[in-house]
Amino acid sequence: MELYEPSDANIWTTPYIREQLLKAHLDPGSDAASRKPETIAATVEWTLKNHPRPGSLIDLGCGPGLYSQAFASRGWQVLGIDINKSSIEHAARETAAKGLSARYLEQSYLTEIDAGPFDLAICIYCDFGALTRNNQTLFLQNARKLLAPGGSLVMDVFGEGISRSKTEGRSWKREEANNFWSEQPCHVLSECQHFADERVWGEKYIVIPDSGPPLTFVLWTHYFTPESIAAQLAESGFEVTESNAGIIRESDFVSTDVLFIRAKKA
């Protein structure tokens, strides 16, 4: 496995897998995609604690709109962005059914977004750390353009504790039909590798269905210290004004070592 080796498929846009991810997002008993309701509520409270009056907000990587709806219910004007078609369609339906005011776009936050300016931009569930270094820079450039003068970016990243939950190695297993990866029975070959110099873990999955071509998915998990994320944000024109490592008090998925960052557009 090579550092930043590309995938030949994307878990967020592959039709079958994106539906599995939507199910994970909507499971209130699991932290596997959107975190549990009590953690979402704590995140929203911390994000808004310095904003006594509603404003405008863009939710970058909004998934099925769980956070977007929470902000909209407090009077914020919200735009949600995500590349998962299934999640965006669900978000639009649920938001309309609840009579809330939020809009959604099926679009990558790595492309230019014709919207704004916004008072707040959020990117929750450690999306930033799943990007390659080049795409992290592109994300921050886009986020900065979307913010009004003095606007803030709120996001979360994994700390060094993520490494305690991962182990280098290779394995394979046989999956029955309608598993996470495929509607068909398949073999799944996996590899996990730590690139310590870059502070990132790579996970590669080769899915070999009983019929049809194999698909390769490569996922990245960067981790940070408060100093390293502050320095990276500064390079893209942001100043960290606050951090909080206590929002994730428990998690049944990956790690509780998560740092929330509030950074002002400099």
Explain what this protein looks like in three dimensions.
The structure is a single chain. 25% of the residues lie in helices and 32% in strands. The chain is α/β, with parallel strands linked by helices. The strands form 2 sheets. It has a 7-stranded mixed sheet, with helices on both faces. A 4-stranded antiparallel sheet has the order 6-7-8-9, with no helix packed on it. The protein is globular and about 55 Å long. The mean pLDDT is 96.
Q: Which regions are unreliable across 5 or more consecutive residues at pLDDT < 50? A: none
Approximate strand percentage: 25-35%
Helix % is: 25-40%
Radius of gyration: 18 Å
Biggest sheet: strand arrangement: 3-2-1-4-5-11-10
Overall pLDDT metric? 96
Amino-to-carboxy terminus distance: 38 Å
Largest sheet: 7 strands, mixed
List the helices and strands and how they pair.
Blueprint: H1 15-25, H2 37-48, E1 56-60, H3 66-72, E2 77-82, H4 85-97, E3 102-106, E4 118-123, H5 133-146, E5 147-158, E6 169-175, E7 186-195, E8 200-209, E9 215-222, H6 226-235, E10 238-244, E11 258-265
Parallel strand pairs: 1-2, 1-4, 2-3, 4-5
Antiparallel strand pairs: 5-11, 6-7, 7-8, 8-9, 10-11
Task: From the structure above, extract its key features.
266 residues, 6 helices, 7-stranded mixed β-sheet, alpha/beta, globular, 32% strand, 25% helix, 4-stranded antiparallel β-sheet
